[in-house]
Each structure stands twice: as structure tokens, then as C-alpha cells.
Amino acid sequence: MIRSLRGMNDILSEDYERFTYFLQTASRIAQHYGHHYIETPLLEETALFKRSVGESSDIVGKEMYQFTDKGGNDVCLRPEGTAGVVRAFIQNKLDRKGGIHRFFYHGPMFRYERPQKGRLREFHQFGVESFGVSSVYEDAAMIMMVSDILNELGIGYRLQLNSLGCQECMPPYRKKLISFLQAAEEHICEDCIRRKSTNPIRVLDCKNGSCQEKYIDAPKLIDHLCENCAADFATLQKILKDNDIEFEIDTHLVRGLDYYSKTAFEFVSDNIGSQSAIAGGGRYDRLVEFLDGRATPAVGFAIGIERLLELIKMPEAGLEGYYMGAMDKEAIPTIIKTAQSKRHSDRVVVEYEPKGLKAHLKNADRIKARYCVVVGENELKENTLWVKDLQEKKELVIPADEFQEI
Ligand SMILES: [Zn+2]
Ligand SMILES: [Zn+2]
């Protein structure tokens, strides 16, 4: 028997209901914030991710499904969603056109990681990207959008917030941090000693407990923000407070790459163990330029869908649509024709095997249909339908041409 690959799951039955409910809810909310759906290929040139996610990252260094295709191109399955959207934005010359462009996407992403609970090799993300707005109000809108999505799904969260500064205030801060790390070198882990020269900001989210203890005293970027970054960060906090969104400042919430700036945020859940981040995002004003586009401010977020599924509180499912069946073979064409007349507006499930009334009612019950419609010899002769409303628990026989009215 051939099985699915390790870390790659089928999504079916109850999970599928949760999955589609999530996508419908998140897509509708993104549309309410003015975003349009965008779909980009699963396969891209490897160079795209090397330049955007960064060659030094674990994602690019260790986790990509990378191969040479039959034409000799170095390609890989996308490990995340933003790079492809930015590539599409530039390739379609929207950066030259100017103006505001708001997108949302969802689909599978691929990372060759060690599979564990809530972490798969093929996983699904829902993401939103906004191009052309430098105002911090857009950052606030991103956070409010995630909050709306989680609230509507009944998922509790904590919001963590930080500012990563800009090209003006980040470099002098980085210098301060490096001298702090030099003085603390004896007390920090080997990874952090290496990061000190490759990517010093990333030491702040080191998973090593004794490093974290040491970094309590590290200089904080939010104390060294330039005037503009400090004002934006204050505005962001005010808007969130005005809109009753609680947050914590987490000065160790950082991103490794230079094109990230200002707002960084993460939504975490305390109900899913150590893999607690359920959504993350922030501003990436320089990524479009990094990928050879015209400088365009941008901000976005992504939500990992699998991690959320079990947290979703599904609405009470009511009875819905029609189940239709025949008692005799001769009645089947009538059933099929009647079903067609309803499918433009409702779910209709047709049973092709003639059965007795009891068996049909049982089937209708199993698929949670509101109405069970059956045609037998009598109904066929008199051009009527036998209908049971399973919600109101009422049976009736109606002329076939009155069927549209129920
Ligand atoms: Zn700044
Ligand atoms: Zn460390």
C-alpha cells in the first residue's frame, strides 16, 4: 500500500469542515478590509527565497524542497507565502504603477522539518499583504484583522508587539547590542556567539534559558528608536487601546532580516503547547527593493492553519438542504430532475438505489439534511412528491410543481 509522505497529511471529514470554515471566515474578513485574493505558484526559482528569506536562515539553509527541474532550473516548493506575492507584485509592474495594492492568499507551504504535533512538512497558511501604505494605521489594521479572525473563530490569544526601528535607528542600536554581547561573551551560548557576528539581533530570541536570563539586561531597541519610529510605535499602541485590543510589548520579538522594519507582532496561544505562535507579521518596507522592485512600503501577516484547527469553536451545525431518493427504479429520473431544479440554491444529495422509506429517512438523517424527498409508485402516478421536514418533523405530499416553494 502506498502511503502519504511523512509530515504530509490528508485533510478530510471533520478537519475539512474546520479547514473550510477557517478559510471562509478569514477570507471574508480580509475582503472586508479591502484585500483581494491572489494565487501564486507553489514552485518558484530557489533564488527568490535565497534573497528574501535569506541564505543564512534555517528555512533556506536546511528545510527547502529544492531540486533541479528537467530544464536544468534550480527550483523549490515555496516554504512561505510572502516572497511569491512580492515577486508577483513586481513582475506585474504594480510597483511602477504606484497606489495601494492589498492581497490575501492561502495554500500549502513546504518545509523539510522534523514532523511533530502542529508542525508538518506540508502545512497551510493564510496570509495578507499590503503594498503602498507607509502609515502605521495600516499596521494597526493588520493586527485588528488577525484579532477579528481569531475572535470570530472563538480562539483566545495574547498579542506581542515590538518595533524593529528603521535604517536610521537600527544600526546604532546594533552596535550597542554587539558591545553588550562582547562583554557578556562568557555567559552566552555558542549559537549566540556566532550570531554576534552574523546576525546579532537574532540573539534576542535565543531559545536557551541562560541566554535569556542574561539578555534581560541587554539594551532594548524601543529605548533607542528614532523620533519617527517612536512616534509610530506610540500611535500604534494608542489605536490598539482605542479598539480594545490588549497587547504586551516583547522586546525580544525580532526578525533576522534587514528588510523588516518598525512594527513586528505575534499572536500566541497558551493552549497548544510549546509551538505557541499562531500568527505573525509586521512591516517589511525594503523587501520590494531587495527583490529589484521600486521601493514600496509593505506590511503583512501569516496564520498557520493546522495549528489553529483544534482551537476553532465551530458554530452549531443545523440541518441543511435536501436528501432525495426513489422507492422504485422507474422514479429515479424524476428524482434526478427534481434535484437539478434545487441545486442552484441548495445542497442536494441524491440516492441512486431504490430503497424503502425507512432507509431513505435514515440516510437523510445521517447527512443532516433538512428535507427528505421520496418518490414512489403513487407519487409518480399522481405527479407528486413525498416530503418530510426533519426539523419541524412534518410530513406532506405536494404536487411536483409546488416543490420550488419549499
Ligand atoms: Zn527609526
Ligand atoms: Zn543563546
Helix/strand structural class? alpha+beta
Beta-strand portion reads 15-25%
Q: How many domain modules?
A: 2
Q: Give the overall pLDDT as a whole number.
A: 93
**Arrangement of strands in the largest sheet:** 1-5-6-11-10-9-7-8
Please report the first level of CATH classification, the CATH class of the largest domain: Alpha Beta
Tell me which oligomeric state these chains represent.
single chain
Inertia-based shape: elongated
State the CATH architecture of the largest domain.
2-Layer Sandwich
Number of helices: 15
- Kindly report how far apart the N and C termini lie: 47 Å
Helicity level, as a percent range?
Answer: 25-40%
CATH superfamily of the largest domain: Bira Bifunctional Protein, Domain 2
In the predicted model, the low-confidence regions spanning at least 5 consecutive residues are none
Q: What is the CATH T-level topology of the largest domain?
A: BirA Bifunctional Protein, domain 2
Q: Round the Cα radius of gyration to an integer and report it.
A: 27 Å
Largest sheet: 8 strands, mixed
**Ions, cofactors and other bound molecules:** zinc ion
Q: Helices, strands, pairings?
A:
Elements (H helix, E strand, L loop, with lengths): L12 H20 L3 E2 L5 E3 H9 L3 H5 L3 E3 L5 E4 L4 H10 L2 H4 L3 E10 L11 E10 L4 H17 L5 E6 L6 H15 L5 H9 L10 H7 L11 H16 L5 E2 L11 E8 L8 E7 L3 H4 L7 E7 H5 L12 E5 L5 H11 L5 E3 L6 H10 L4 E5 L1 H6 L1 E6 L4 E6 L7
Parallel strand pairs: 1-5, 7-8, 12-13, 12-14
Antiparallel strand pairs: 2-4, 3-4, 5-6, 6-11, 7-9, 9-10, 10-11, 14-15, 15-16
Helix pairs in contact: 1-6, 6-10
The structure holds zinc ion (2 copies).
The site of one zinc ion has 8 residues, from helix 10.
